Task: structure prediction
Amino acid sequence: MGDIAFTKTFVQHYAFIMKTLKKSHESDTMSNRIVHISVQLFSNEELARQVTEECQLLDIMVTVLLYMMESCLIKSELQDEENSLHVVVNCGEALLKNNTYWPLVSDFINILSHQSVAKKFLEDHGLLVTWMNFVSFFQGMNLNKRELNEHVEFESQTYYAAFAAELEACAQPMWGLLSHCKVRETQEYTRNVVRYCLEALQDWFDAINFVDEPAPNQVTFHLPLHRYFAMFLSKAVKCQELDLDTILPDQEMLMKLMIHPLQIQASLSEIHSNMWVRNGLQIKGQAMTYVQSHFCNSMIDPDIYLLQVCASRLDPDYFISSVFERFKVVDLLTMASQHQNTVLDSEHERSMLEGALTFLVLLLSLRLHLGMTDDEILRAEMVAQLCMNDRTHSSLLDLIPENPNPKSGIIPGSLSFESVLSAVADFKAPVFEPGGSMQQGMYTPKAEVWDKEFDPVMVILRTVYRRDVQSAMDRYTAFLKQSGKFPGNPWPPYKKRTPLHPSYRGLIKLLHCKTLHIVLFTLLYKILMDHQNLSEHVLCMVLYLIELGLENSPEQESDEEESVGGQERCHDSWFPGSNLISNMRHFINYVRVRVPETAPEVKREPPASTSSDGLASSQSSRRKSLQRENSGTAQVFSLVAERRKKFQEIINRNTSEANQVVRPKTSMKWSAPGATPQLTTAILEVKESILSLLIKLHHKLSGKQNSYYPPWLDDVDVLIHPEIPRYSHGDGMTAVERILLKAAVQSRLNKRIIEEICRKVTPPVPPKKISSAEKKTLDKEERRQKARERQQKLLAEFASRQKSFMETAMDVESPDADVAMEVATSEQHVSEAIYDCVICGQSGPSTEDRPTGLVVLLQASSVLGQCRNSTEPKRLPTTEEEQIYPWDTCAALHDVRLTTLQRYFKDSSCLQAVSIGWEGGVYVQTCGHTLHIDCHKSYMESLRNDQVLQGFSVDKGEFTCPLCRQFANSVLPCYPGNNMERSVWQSHSNKCMQDLVQEVEDLQEQLGTFPVSISSETNLSKEMESVMKDIKSTTQKKYTDYSKTPGSPDNDFLFMYSVARTNLELELVHRGGNLCSGGASTAGKRSCLNQLFHVLAMHMRLYSIDSAYNPWRKLTQPLQDKNSELVSEELPEVPVLYRDVSSLLLIQILTMPQPLHREHFTCIIKVLFTLLYTQALAALSVKCSTEDRMAWKESGSLKKNTSSGEKSWEVLLSHVISELSKGKIYDEGETEELAVVNVDSVECYLQQFCLPFLRITSLLQHHLFGGDLPSCQEDEEFTILASCLGLLPSFQSAHQFTSASCLDWPVPAFDMISQWCSELASFADRHPDQVKALLIQEPKWDLPRLLQLPENYNTIFQYYHRKTCSVCTKVPKDPAVCLVCGTFVCLKGLCCKQQSYCECVLHSQNCGAGTGIFLLINASVIIIIRGHRFCLWGSVYLDAHGEEDRDLRRGKPLYICKERYKVLEQQWVSHTFDHINKRWGPHYNGL
Result:
């Protein structure tokens, strides 16, 4: 019993708790604590029931809430500001702003969830009165007054509090109570609630002094009493089988009830028409919140339902005229071409008219509370949301209004949700185009949903942003185009509705009342006559209403009989009866209109029988036409006056007390102010019926005379089965055809009249002023047609030009597409490259004094350094045992090698024996666009002065390409001339090898001569220098300085050729590590290697190589004195066999005068290949076992003297072995041995050893001389590349091919080999332990990969989120892990900051030379750091519905998305983060 005692005490202190809450400054923590207690106590039904009975818990709660709110009441200014007696809560008070009332309300909702407690509440009249009193405090709160002059100074944000309060304090308890009114037996409860609700409403109307007109320019979105009333009515009919009329109030009360909800609908339209723009953005915020998914079923839905109930019970003419009056468009509804609108500016008329008609369509089409089942509602809501946009699972859950009461059955995620979803939508798995945006898993409507269920009305009701309606229509259009159902721009389809519940049949009367028919007739006429301020949307809604009328005919179906005497009975009004079907065919001959004297209509004398179009005339202008013949003259009444009269009649009928009859008349408001021009009466000749207007509209829409032909004349079946699919989708013409068909189906007379109208050859439609919109579309079509023809012509011309060009240029191979396509140069032979400047638009060659440059992005990259020599990618460690050691990476091994070389050999020669740039190498890429360098400078100036830039820093030279907006940071000058000496295409020149070798040497000697003379400072050479500075400053100092003497020129030399190496190697990686695919450079014209070589070559030639040390001599001439080196004191040079051949290649090429001759290039390759081959043999000889070695030595020496000895690997190997045996090279212990040493495996080993060099060389040749790379199978790559490079004299058949046949020795092979081996032998004497280690091994690098991630995100999260940081030994607040090397870092952690750099930034510099890829453990997102910028990349872990869960808010299990990870890896390897990700921001080293 302790529970009960405690609970009783808790309840007795309830009032005290409320006081504490009100005073408490930290009401959040306080209220949380209280809720923790009360949830425990009040969720036990038994306990709750007992306390309710014994302690008056409900009374205490309601009273406490009432007192709490009373502390912040203010006088309501709604309606009658001076005399209002109504008080409302002040939404600006802390109590509401901070939701301080929430703990009490939540207890109340909690308690009401128990059947027994709710039953007590609903039976207790006193409690209900108090509760309605409480709810009325919120009725009319947060009143908005339209600002008419100044823009409001201070935008109040109180509306958040107001909407929250209504939802939490009024709506949620209401849903709680409703959940107990589900069955017949509970009818009494509903009666009670409705009764006290109506009493409270009557008190409210009295308190604010309401008569019949709402105050102008005011709106409140908060009418909780109306909504209680509406929701209980709905429940009564839907679940309790109550007769609606027994609980509805009298007509007068219904008239009052409809005013405020209708005012909200009109205000929504005003807000969207920008009439409230001076109230600031917050008013738009309110309009959006009112329809937003969490609020709509407690706000707009009950409001519309209440208006539907009122409309079904009130006089339809009164209701329709009220709507047009509220929307302020009464004055617009005249047949005259000009009118005066006293309450609305003309620029707002069109959208307000659209608003009024759209509202009527919503009112008459929606069936949410009028007969749809819960499942149908869920389905309709879901379809509407999916039609607007594809949605993720979680956003759909969020957007579908759930019944706020948890016990209602539609709990998100419940079975019905999933089953409806799978019925209406297809799941689109996340797609990842590299370079495209990251998609999430989305649901998209099935084709049959677009075909049958797309409901524009529901979409309009549920859109928060107007653009969503357009989006739904665009998607619908796309569907129709794609499925071939309709090619043009369709109109919203008409959708059949669920049948109305019998209680609401009265709603149909709205469609069959004269007032609506007059409005429809007038609007059709105005549209046909092209009056101003009408739109396609207006016509669409008019047709929709006509169609609704035809679909829902009134009860008494006596159409045909009536028509006999019908014609006589139309004296004083436009139409004979109220049935749309018969009114459609009724002809109206003359209309009397009131127009300004200036109007064109004034000229005419009235004919004998006239009538007036009193949409603007007063009642006095009525006149009965006495002719009884079928003159069909029409008389019109004034909408406003009629409405007033009806209202007066009803009030007089309802009340006998005299004092109430004399209500103050407010109607004088509407008389036009004196300032307007004098109105005068004119007579219009009309002679149309709704049917004839529709047929003429069809002609107008089609732009053809007599375009309408009744379909049943050809095919009678249409009348029997009018539901033809061809009418279900289409444009305005289709809609008109559908309506005429329905009219003909419903009445024989209509069918006959339609035929008659079509038979009379239609007189020309009033001179057709094509409306500007239509004109636009017609123009567009013509323009498109012309454009198409023009394009065809151009293409044909272009093709013929290209053909003639190709014929003249056939012998010229052109690598960059630009030159081939350049029509300008097709006349003369290609001599000079022409460039277009994307800034000034001029074309021309690049010259010395006005150089052109390529837009490039320079970035430091360590991607190459991440290659490993195993094909098994590393895994991200997720246990303490797994660790990653970086010593097997390409970068680490190259580093070790250089350091070792520097220990034993002369520094300057070490720096030419290797390449650097595996870490922190500079990668150059371009978008392919060119600009004048002087144009670029002025462009940069303008960027510097333009302060709105974000995302890149102009001071660091960053910019975006003016044409394609790709990120860039430098300009690479284009070398004048054609850069390509292409005439010498045959790969074998007739000069012999010796001569060529000599020529190469001579060329290297004349270093000073350079085609662009360096001594004269031209603009070009200045630019080349400046870009070289840029390249150098791209990477950090530690990646450029390797020499023992800092700042030595050798360093620069090494750095420069390594830049070339880095770019070639990276291109190789982008091609997948080999050249099998062939083709042009991956990016075709996007490669800038050619220009880059020119810049590098120009700088490298500034460093002269001392001819004594020129490696070329060592490769091509046997040295005379072998002993000279041993004598010298200093360290020896690096032996040739230890030098990296690819580096030697670049040194040779880049120190030659440019442009290089093809024959010299081939000569250099041949010489280097001999060295490479010897290195391969040396490496092989070290690898095999002693016995094998002896065997090879023997077998080779036997063949030594054969003619082809220099081209047989056996002979050469045996020679290498015998030469190397002279030193102590083979003495050390055995190294790892080749498994089987047979002929094939040796051949294979040698080819694999040489391939990397051949690949780099082929790429280089491709960039220097053009020409496509051949494609091939992997096993023939060696032979294809060798022949492509000119190493293979004549291509032999593969089976007898040996790699040695590619050799072409400049001097006798055995002399050269002996010389090279002797260098090693002498080194071995001094350092026997290092000889083998330094021999170049067979390089087997796998492509760079990111770490492999585990399948399930939880694995990572569990290990890392409690892991301590190795630097500061704390558990980081934001842990992150590097996906390249697995290092664990503190994001933003101040603990690990060094010299103002936080740890992630620091790591990105050390690990990726400025590029870092980090997985944020607590958010599952990946961030990219690139230099001084960073961006959120997205997540590679998705839930079962293919969605991200950023910040792990939803807590769903996440699984690796391999495709996304592939995309990330691909962007990393291809260095395209900067181009693909858009949202970059500076990180100020704070990550």
Remarks:
- The first strand starts at residue 73 and ends at 75.
